[in-house]
Amino acid sequence: MNILVINCGSSSLKFQLIDAGTEEMIAKGLCERIGIPGSRLVYTPKDSGKIITEAVMKDHTDAIRMVLDSLTDAKVGVLTSLNEISAVGHRVVHGGEKFASSTVITDDVIAAIEECNALAPLHNPANLIGIQSCRELMPDVPMVAVFDTAFHQTMPEEAYLYGIPYEYYEKHQVRKYGFHGTSHAYVSAQAAKMLNKPYESLKLIVCHLGNGASVSAVKNGKCVDTSMGMTPLEGLIMGTRSGDVDPAVIEYLCKITEKSVGEVLEELNKKSGVLGLSAGFSSDFRDLEDAYLEGEENSVRALNAFTYRVVKYIGSYCAAMGGVDAICFTAGLGENSPFIREKICEYLGFWGIELDHELNVLRGKEVDVTTKESRTRVLVIPTNEELAIARETVALINN
Ligand code: AMP
């Protein structure tokens, strides 16, 4: 059974074709600059190099048509016909309080996702365009929506409410939702397998550290808190996002810069984080790490602040859960940077956490990077959101 996983952005579309039996990726790719001059498809069949096709893609339907043509192409294709695609799994960013789990896509589901658009105005409309385009081109293929927010819907009220008048929650659903849920769910379940313990018996902290970054607390198999909020701007200091700031800073910045709220929010989203803290040096953690090691002061400042914020969230989630069995690192930085893991774990030595420095440099696989004596396990677990979406899709269409 082959599952096509689609992740649609406003001008891009990522896809993976996954064999659900072996859980292997058969082909993957990316359509860039959809609706903008210079659009192209980067298509990578398994065991082969990238094939780049430059062609006009005026909209997402054009892009998906190109993807399907490549997958079934006589020369570079991996399928003989589109009938070999059993289902499509769509990543959808915001499911609000309407979706606490993945769901088979129907007209009612599309209408309910549309109602969540106001909570994610940049992402949800693009996700919906991807869904509509696939329905147009593959009308008989079942489709499933997998939400970034769903895993966090188990958070208790005390974790998801903001300290603002309650009517804003009751009337307008202003609350913490959390994101990267598919990754947090996948990684925490993998952690239980690695630890060889029932998922329902564990207290886990998952640090998804990439350009966007979030931490979650997973107790007895359920998310009980997470660092991102109503939008992905809250929480950790990220590549370009500020994370937590005093909301009064926004009014103050508007006053002193004569910018609008929208302009200041744009700065908090796109010019802040480690990019802003490094005085514009870089949002890329590789650049910052190299410069840090040479003592470059902007990078030292940015990475110190980034690390400190991660440690604060780990500490608070440990207190919230009454302990922790394992801290898991995932995503671009979490998986690939021994340096950042070491910097974070240095703070946690008081708690009996001890890294094994030889294991900590291993890459690209699941590994427990702590010594036998360490009081809490530290696990590196490469995330695989596409596989998680494919698994959810199979589970739902089999029902
Ligand atoms: P993601 O958003 O999950 O793709 O993560 C992207 C971030 O991970 C970028 O800032 C990269 O610089 C960072 N990253 C990827 N590989 C490494 C590495 N080997 N060392 C440090 N950072 C890395």
The small-molecule ligands in this entry are: adenosine monophosphate
Strand content: 15-25%
- The overall average pLDDT, rounded, is 96
What is the tally of beta strands?
Answer: 14
Main beta sheet: 8 strands, mixed
Please explain how this structure is put together.
This protein is of the alpha/beta class and 399 residues long. The chain folds into 2 domains: 2-147, Nucleotidyltransferase, domain 5 (2-Layer Sandwich), CATH 3.30.420.40; 196-385, ATPase, nucleotide binding domain (Nucleotidyltransferase, domain 5, 2-Layer Sandwich), CATH 3.30.420. The chain is 38% helix and 20% strand. The protein has helices at 60-71, 107-115, 124-137, 157-160, 166-172, 181-195, 248-257, 261-270, 273-277, 285-293, 297-321, 331-336, 338-347, 385-398; strands at 2-8, 13-19, 24-32, 40-45, 51-54, 85-92, 103-104, 143-147, 203-209, 213-219, 222-226, 326-330, 367-368, 377-380. The strands form 2 sheets. Strands 5-4-3-2-1-6-8-7 form an 8-stranded mixed beta sheet, sandwiched between helices. A 6-stranded mixed beta sheet has the order 11-10-9-12-14-13, sandwiched between helices. A hairpin with a 3-residue loop joins strand 9 and strand 10. The radius of gyration is 21 Å and the shape is globular. The chain binds adenosine monophosphate. The site of adenosine monophosphate (AMP) has 12 residues, from helix 10 and helix 12.
